[in-house]
Amino acid sequence: MDKIRLVGGTALRGEVPISGAKNAALALMPACLLTDAPLRLSNVPRLADTRTMTALLDHMGVQVGQEDASTLVLNAAGVKDTTAPYDLVRQMRASVLVLGPLVARYGQARVSLPGGCAIGARPVDLHLRALEAMGVEIELNEGYINARSAGRLRGARFAFPKVTVGGTENALMAAVLADGETVLENAAREPEIEDLGQCLKAMGAKIEGLGTGTLVIEGVERLHGAEHSVLPDRIETGTFAVAAAITRGRVTLTNTRADLIDSVIDHLRRAGVEVTVSDGALVVDATRNDLQGVDIQTEPFPGFPTDMQAQWMALMCTADGASLITESIFENRFMHVPELLRMGANINVHSASAIVRGVPKLLGAPVMATDLRASSSLVLAGLVAKGETTVRRIYHLDRGYERLEEKLLACGAHIERLAGTGAEAAE
Ligand code: EPZ
């Protein structure tokens, strides 16, 4: 298995082009199932997860053409199999996002339950309840969701008991072809959902309330093809902003939007990082001030994103003073803590909160990635730690970051990817 080797101590300087959002692309790609006309998606990030989604759609009979490095043309005219098999779903939970489109267009779907995940139980019960409200019959057996609808789905009013990004996406994609009006209350407001909604509207869907917690959808008989550019990845943007801050450098982030990470920018500024926006680029400058500890609590958008919690913790390990980090979305998202402790961090976890006390120096060490965002926090810590850090199991990283080491190298980081050897395969 590949690993990443870093030698810390260089203040990053340079420019980072931000890629398209993984979590938008993973919802936009299954949207092709809602029509038999081509859907052209540009600014699609090249990631392990988008390759897994391509493999799943291909398995169903979707034609997925790669027009150029970041443009896909997806055509579901020839879909012949409405099953999402376990061996693909277990690799990527977002595979469950084919459920809503499949049952809305084909009246049936057999999708493996995602199963467990490192950061939490992550059930899909609310996805299923929303679909049942639209008339879908759901049966669970042999680890699969068997969904069936006698005729067209029917519009319904459904209030999500808790905010769920994937649940909102599945319900939205089902509602656009339903008969009548659907009202989704307490819907997630993440920018990736607004991006999906804009794409669906370009395909002919009738949706009101995008960006708010109440979505009103007037179902239509069919959708047509469209072209859509995936919005910038706000978590990659935040991750590189933290890379600039933790190394006390100055980095310009391009092809992104500041409004996608207002909460992260606010917290960076409160910590002493200078963040300015100039002609569409984000300039993150940590060369002048000492950084102070700042508390965070993760919340649904527009609150502080849970996908930035691990990265923020790495930064707080190097700040002056203490910070309280509360994870309120997932029940097990502190697996980066033991690895940061190996690097000399001072962190104490008390159930859903961690108290971080800044230390003068992190020390390089061999560490192990456990999940996507935990692995990025270890890379961030390695950028500033004294000496050498090697991060193992970086397949986690490759799921969500396109060319991470290249982008860091371009800003002066001492980082390289070491090809794994067979002997380490069991690691
Ligand atoms: C999406 O996951 C993202 N993934 C996650 O990003 C992100 O952390 C999460 O939203 C929260 O923002 C993609 O978009 C592909 P949820 P999702 O449904 O949709 C509970 C990353 O690092 N819940 O909003 O699975 C659930 O257990 C990944 O890029 C139910 O109880 O998240 C969790 O505690 C990690 N029942 C909370 O809601 C349900 O039916 C939020 O989950 C659904 C969710």
TrEMBL record:
Biological pathway: Cell wall biogenesis; peptidoglycan biosynthesis
Group of enzyme by EC: transferase
Entry annotation: catalytic residues: C117 (proton donor)
Keyword line: Cell cycle, Cell division, Cell shape, Cell wall biogenesis/degradation, Cytoplasm, Peptidoglycan synthesis, Pyruvate, Transferase
Tagged with keyword Cytoplasm: yes
GO cellular component: cytoplasm
Cellular localization per UniProt: Cytoplasm
Binding site for UDP-N-acetyl-alpha-D-glucosamine: R93, R122, P123, V124, D125, L126, D307, I329
Catalytic activity: phosphoenolpyruvate + UDP-N-acetyl-alpha-D-glucosamine = UDP-N-acetyl-3-O-(1-carboxyvinyl)-alpha-D-glucosamine + phosphate
Enolpyruvate transferase domain: residues covered: 8-408
Pfam families, per the entry: EPSP_synthase
Modified residues (2-(S-cysteinyl)pyruvic acid O-phosphothioketal): C117
GO biological process: cell division; cell wall organization; peptidoglycan biosynthetic process; regulation of cell shape; UDP-N-acetylgalactosamine biosynthetic process
EC code: 2.5.1.7
GO molecular function, one term: UDP-N-acetylglucosamine 1-carboxyvinyltransferase activity
UniProt-annotated binding residues for phosphoenolpyruvate: K22, N23
HAMAP family named in the record: MurA
Family assignment from sequence similarity: Belongs to the EPSP synthase family. MurA subfamily.
Known function: Cell wall formation. Adds enolpyruvyl to UDP-N-acetylglucosamine.
Protein name (Swiss-Prot/TrEMBL): UDP-N-acetylglucosamine 1-carboxyvinyltransferase
Biological source species: Phaeovibrio sulfidiphilus
Source lineage: Bacteria, Pseudomonadati, Pseudomonadota, Alphaproteobacteria, Rhodospirillales
Gene name of this polypeptide: murA
